[in-house]
Amino acid sequence: MAIGLIMEIPGMTAEVYDQVNAKANAPDDPPAGLIFHVSGPTEGGFRIVDVWESREAFDRFASEKLGPTIAEVTGQQGSSPQPTEFSVHNIEFHNG
After folding, report:
1. pLDDT per residue as tens, the chain (96 positions)
2. Domain segments of the chain: what residues?
3. Is the Cβ–Cβ distance between 51 and 85 less than 8 Å?
4. Core-most of 10, 45, 46, 86, by most CB within 10 Å?
5. CATH code reported for the domain at 3-86
């Protein structure tokens, strides 16, 4: 069953997000299990909303790629963002 994840990242800028995204190569080689990804600035940070095939798929990406990439870009060791999880009832994609 698919899951949704919302990540609020205080202090993150679009520039840092773009660096992490490029180094993780997510646009060209999406992580296994990722169904949908959207992000944007908030007052004082960044918000990311994902839909994944499973929590295990996200956790694997977070530990193997996202966490190390964030540490490389920011110079700060630590874990990847802790998301708020919700069950996905419906997924629709609309064009236009």
Report:
1. 899 999 999 999 999 999 999 998 877 889 999 999 999 999 999 999 999 999 999 999 999 999 899 899 988 776 667 899 999 999 998 987
2. 3-86
3. no
4. 46
5. 3.30.70.100
* Structure tokens belonging to residue 61: 């990406």
Nearest to 50 by CA among 31, 74, 23: 31
Predicted TM-score (pTM) of the model is 0.87
Tell me what pLDDT residue 34 has: 96
Are 31 and 49 in contact, with CB atoms under 8 Å apart?
no
58 and 83 in contact (C-beta within 8 Å)? yes
